[in-house]
């Protein structure tokens, strides 16, 4: 069965063309050996969840660890009720463990458990191997629910590995200091103190040009359809290696624009695919629109779109934009929009950024 380019959810090696996500996180092995608690933050659809699923399977299959990726997303609907949120989260964690882990490694009965901290303590104590937990979508939580979870993790940290997870990662869009805490989600922590046990915060880089070529070569190897070197380079230029864009362009190319595998993919076809994506607003507008509502994001992005000179911007705000993948530091020009697809479609048409910004201003 021929695989395909994935643009929705974690990649699966048997279904999707994919590169090893762990190669973009080379420090993880050392952090785990050090019983480290750490943070991984990166824009949506860059491979975080794929990487954590792959790492958890690798660790469990090694026979040395009991590792699983879980999520706190289901708790987001209870922002003012930590008890209900944590109960929902723990039910989701048990469901995830029942799918990803063999019975002997799954958590014990959590009925009557009071909170995430107690649940992790019981699991670590009864696990036959050191427990490694990767908590995805952590920044879906807000306010007291978020603070409750972070403080329980910090409280249990000194008891690892016998009485708490050997290693633990928080995985999300934002670094800890940018987690939302104010009413309505308009504020942020400004500090990592609720999770000051972390060894390191790290992000996942985009694909480099060679990796884009490797990914596309997988399609060529399976179907015979060639991406010319110029087309691959054009893709990298337009996307700057942003993984979702790289896959989205390729999916449009091989499934819609050039479905005949006897025909090569050319730069002209890549440009057509780019225009299609922009017309459909397939460039993360679902997540970008909400991010662009934040005043400190708009204060930087809107002048850049208008070609105006930026006023003095706090370093923390610049780092926030870099962390979210909205901007990058150009070799010569300094802070710039992350890639040409984000920045501009073509003459006379609105960019995805402009559309998102307009929606935010109009309250849509």
Structural summary, described in words:
- The chain has 14 helices and 7 strands.
- It is of the alpha/beta class and 364 residues long.
- The chain folds into 3 domains: 21-202, P-loop containing nucleotide triphosphate hydrolases (Rossmann fold), CATH 3.40.50.300; 209-280; 285-362, no CATH class.
- The strands form 2 sheets. The protein has a 5-stranded parallel sheet with strand order 2-3-4-1-5. The chain has a two-stranded antiparallel ribbon with strand order 6-7.
- β6 (327-330) and β7 (334-337) form a beta hairpin.
- The protein is globular and about 60 Å long.
- The protein starts with 27 loop residues before the first helix and ends with a helix.
What attributes does this structure have?
44% helix; globular; single chain; alpha/beta; two-stranded antiparallel ribbon; Rossmann fold; 364 residues
Give the secondary structure arrangement, pairings included:
Blueprint: H1 28-33, E1 37-41, H2 48-61, E2 66-71, H3 82-100, H4 116-126, E3 131-136, H5 143-156, E4 167-172, E5 200-202, H6 209-223, H7 229-239, H8 243-257, H9 267-280, H10 285-291, H11 295-305, H12 315-323, E6 327-330, E7 334-337, H13 340-343, H14 352-362
Parallel strand pairs: 1-4, 1-5, 2-3, 3-4
Antiparallel strand pairs: 6-7
| CATH class descriptor of the largest domain | Alpha Beta
> In CATH terms, what is the fold-level topology of the largest domain?
Rossmann fold
| Tally of contiguous helical segments | 14
Number of strands: 7
CATH homologous superfamily label of the largest domain: P-loop containing nucleotide triphosphate hydrolases
CATH architecture of the largest domain: 3-Layer(aba) Sandwich
Summing up helix and strand content along with how strands pair, one would put the structural category as alpha/beta
For the report, how would you describe the main beta sheet?
5 strands, parallel
How are the strands of the largest sheet arranged?
2-3-4-1-5
Output the radius of gyration. 22 Å
Order of helices and strands: HEHEHHEHEEHHHHHHHEEHH
List the domain count as a whole number.
3
């Amino acid at each position: 069965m021929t695989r395909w380019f994935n643009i929705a959810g974690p990649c699966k090696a048997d279904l999707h063309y994919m590169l090893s996500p762990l190669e973009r996180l080379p420090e993880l092995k050392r952090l785990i050996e050090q019983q480290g608690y750490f943070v991984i933050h990166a824009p949506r659809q860059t491979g975080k969840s794929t990487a954590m699923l792959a790492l958890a399977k690798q660790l469990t299959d090694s026979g040395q660890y009991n590792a699983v990726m879980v999520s706190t997303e289901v708790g987001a609907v209870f922002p003012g009720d930590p008890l209900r949120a944590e109960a929902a989260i723990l039910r989701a964690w048990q469901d995830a463990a029942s799918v990803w882990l063999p019975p002997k490694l799954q958590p014990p009965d959590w009925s009557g458990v009071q909170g995430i901290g107690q649940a992790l303590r019981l699991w670590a104590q009864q696990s036959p191997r050191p427990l490694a937990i990767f908590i995805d979508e952590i920044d879906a939580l807000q306010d007291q629910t978020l603070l409750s979870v972070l403080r329980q993790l910090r409280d249990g940290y000194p008891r690892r590995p016998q009485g708490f997870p050997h290693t633990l990662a928080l995985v999300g869009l934002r670094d800890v200091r940018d987690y939302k805490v104010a009413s309505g989600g308009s504020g942020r922590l400004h500090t990592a103190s609720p999770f000051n046990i972390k060894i390191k915060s790290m992000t996942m880089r985009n694909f480099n040009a060679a990796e884009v070529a490797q990914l596309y070569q997988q399609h060529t190897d399976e179907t015979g359809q060639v991406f010319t070197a110029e087309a691959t380079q054009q893709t990298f230029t337009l996307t700057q290696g942003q993984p979702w864009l790289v896959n989205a362009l390729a999916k449009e190319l091989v499934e819609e624009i050039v479905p005949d595998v006897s025909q090569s993919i050319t730069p002209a076809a890549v440009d057509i695919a780019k225009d299609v994506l922009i017309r459909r607003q397939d460039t993360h507008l679902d997540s970008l629109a909400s991010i662009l509502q934040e005043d400190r994001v708009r204060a930087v992005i809107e002048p850049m779109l208008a070609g105006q000179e930026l006023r003095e911007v706090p370093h923390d705000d610049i780092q926030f934009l870099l962390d979210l993948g909205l901007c990058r530091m150009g070799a010569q020009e300094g802070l710039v929009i992350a890639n040409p697809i984000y920045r501009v479609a073509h003459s006379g048409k609105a960019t995805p950024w402009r559309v998102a910004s307009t929606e935010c201003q109009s309250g849509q």
